[in-house]
Design a protein that fits this description.
The chain has 188 residues and is α+β, with helices and mostly antiparallel strands. It has 6 helices and 4 strands.
């Protein structure tokens, strides 16, 4: 007897593959968009709340162990945030842009939020916004209050080959610093 086809079989298979540690291809797959639920069920919200609580607990413990650590330059974010806090190996972090004000990265690391999303059949644009983004903003603000964290939800796995994030110093783009870049008389 043949099993009935379910619309969630593909996402369950991908989630199961991720659960087993089997590599899921890192290619843009627009057809995946229709396989994920954008609105979570009550049980999903409970699981995501637990995941967020665990991530915040880890963040607090990490901060307690590094009370005196602060970000002096945007270059420090790469080492402190990605390598030390998120524990991403350097090979998985591509630096797209790095200057004195801004860091843009694309990460291809094995991600617990991606894995959780695949297992639950939820859209990563939802789960990352709910679980990961608040904790990342919290940590970065503790490291330096004027840091701004943004995630590009148009460039996120499993829809793209990597996840893109932008971290910049808010005070770096003030009119005083813009004056240095603009020709004289541009403010008139």
């Amino acid at each position: 007897m043949r099993a009935a086809h379910s619309p969630y079989v593909g996402s369950i298979s991908i989630g199961f593959a991720a659960f087993l540690g089997i590599a899921v291809p890192n290619v843009p797959v627009p057809w995946l968009e229709h396989r994920f639920r954008s609105s979570p069920r009550l049980v999903d919200k409970f699981v995501l709340s637990i995941a967020k609580l665990v991530f915040y607990t880890y963040a607090m413990l990490w901060l307690l162990a590094r009370r005196d650590v602060k970000v002096a330059k945007i270059e420090d974010v790469l080492e402190l945030f990605y390598i030390d806090f998120l524990r991403i190996e350097r090979d998985y972090v591509e630096v797209v842009k790095l200057d004195r004000c801004e860091l843009v990265t694309r990460c291809t690391n094995p991600c617990p939020i991606l894995s959780l999303s695949l297992r639950l059949g939820l859209d990563t644009r939802y789960t990352c916004r709910e679980v990961s983004e608040p904790v990342c903003r919290f940590i970065l603000k503790k490291l330096r209050p004027d840091i701004v964290f943004e995630r590009n939800y148009g460039w996120i796995r499993p829809y793209r080959e990597s996840c893109e994030e932008r971290i910049y110093l808010a005070n770096c783009l003030q009119p005083a610093s813009l004056k240095e870049r603009l020709p004289t008389g541009s403010f008139q």
